[in-house]
Amino acid sequence: MTARNSLVGKCFVIFGYNSAWSRQGVVRHDLSGGYYLVQFFDAFMGLPNTSAIFHISQMVDQNRAKGGWEFFENDEHLREWIGDRD
To answer: pTM of the full predicted structure?
Structure first.
């Protein structure tokens, strides 16, 4: 896996107000030019929901301010992280 596509397959959360996570998903595809297709998951059931395209510049802000992203190696790691916050 190269540095360029290292986000593909990674799970993530996006933070909302008060440093609480507001969305969760997985990076599905590298679309080239720094754009990635992400799949969001329903927060309650964990089922696939909507998809969106983001530029890497929107995804690299890894602070817990509104709009910040945090990445995880896989869905097990993400679920563990979420469970620690409940």
So the answer is: 0.81
